[in-house]
Amino acid sequence: MNQPLVELSDVRMQFRGQEVLTGINLHVSPREIVTLIGPNGAGKTTLVRIILGLQQLSSGQRVVKKGLRIGYMPQKLHIDDTMPLTVNRFLRLTGCRLTAVNDALGRTGVARVLHSPLQSLSGGELQRVLLARALLHKPHLLVLDEPVQGVDVTGQKELYQLITDIRDESKEQENCAVLMVSHDLHVVMASTDKVVCINRHVCCYGHPQQVRQDPAYLQLFGRESDELAVYTHHHDHQHGVDGHVQPAKGK
User: Fold this and answer.
1) What would the pLDDT profile of 45-63 be if each residue is shown by its tens digit?
2) pLDDT-based confidence at residue 236 (cuts at 50, 70, 90)
3) What's this model's pTM, rounded to 2 decimal places?
4) Nearest C-alpha neighbor of 44 from the set 163, 197, 242
5) What integer pLDDT is reported at residue 188 of this predicted model?
6) pLDDT at residue 95 above 50?
7) What angle (nearest 5°) sits at the alpha carbon of residue 165, between those of residues 123 and 100?
8) Which one of 28, 67, 124, 222 is most buried, counting C-beta atoms within 10 A?
9) pLDDT tens digits for range 11-33
10) Angle at 132 (CA atoms; ends 128, 134), nearest 5 degrees
């Protein structure tokens, strides 16, 4: 079995005495696509920062594979409209050569925008440029925070297919894995190997088909729901590592 690229064990995070994450166990293995879902305030951003190594833990453990390279695609990019910054210049700020920039843009299907100002790009083009930036250093793990932000439905499907293709086409020695944060359940469920639903703790965990049938998932989203609305998660149960609901202690 392949060693996980990153593994979190009993991770807890507190801010100003308030527990933001409780007992999080999570791992991402090579060539795996894992999707992280949850409501606003569930701790997704904090969890991503922990995975990236940007947030010190209150307790628990983060273990990464030796030599791990991580490519990160942020949810949003704010560029001053008056800043004369082309796509080429933006990507070259990473220290990569033009050949690498061209290769990355070609891989994400937007080689044509190389000399375009960032401010002139459509939502879909900008997201593909950000994905190209995340790919520049040939990462073992891609961390994508809401990768289809500001993209229409057709563009969302194309982007998710592109992400899957990148994973499938990664060279044997790269074994690229993907961790995504997303609210687009209907599309993402068909494009991921494992789903982790959190609301400060892990609510549901497993393969998409298993999660779809999980009582906790059905309670939260219903059978036909394809979008993540703000919901209330009632803590009247607990979950096994396979995502199955168990009665809470004392119930």
Assistant:
1) 999 999 999 999 999 999 9
2) very low
3) 0.83
4) 197
5) 74
6) yes
7) 70
8) 28
9) 999 998 889 999 999 999 999 99
10) 115
Structure token digits, residue 240: 């096994």
CB 211 within 8 Å of CB 171: no
Residue 145, strand partner residues: 181
Closest CA to 199 of 57, 37, 62, 55: 37
User: DSSP letters of 182-228?
Assistant: -S-HHHHHTT-SEEEEESSSEEEEE-HHHHHH-HHHHHHH-SS--S-
Question: Nearest Cα to 87, choosing from 114, 66, 108?
Answer: 114
3-state secondary structure of 30: coil
List 7's β-bridge partners, or say none.
27, 63
Q: How far apart are CA 119 and CA 245, in angstroms?
A: 47
Ordered structural domains, the chain, with CATH: 6-69+141-247 (3.40.50.300), 77-137 (no CATH)
Q: Can you read off the two tokens belonging to residue 89?
A: 């210049």
Q: Which of 33-47, 120-134, 189-203, 236-250 is the most confident on average?
A: 120-134
With beta carbons less than 8 A apart as the criterion, state whether 166 and 200 touch.
Answer: no
DSSP assigned state of 78: -
Paired strand residues for 238: 246
Alpha helices, H only, 69-207: 87-92, 98-107, 123-135, 153-169, 185-189
Identify which has the larger pLDDT, 111 or 208.
111
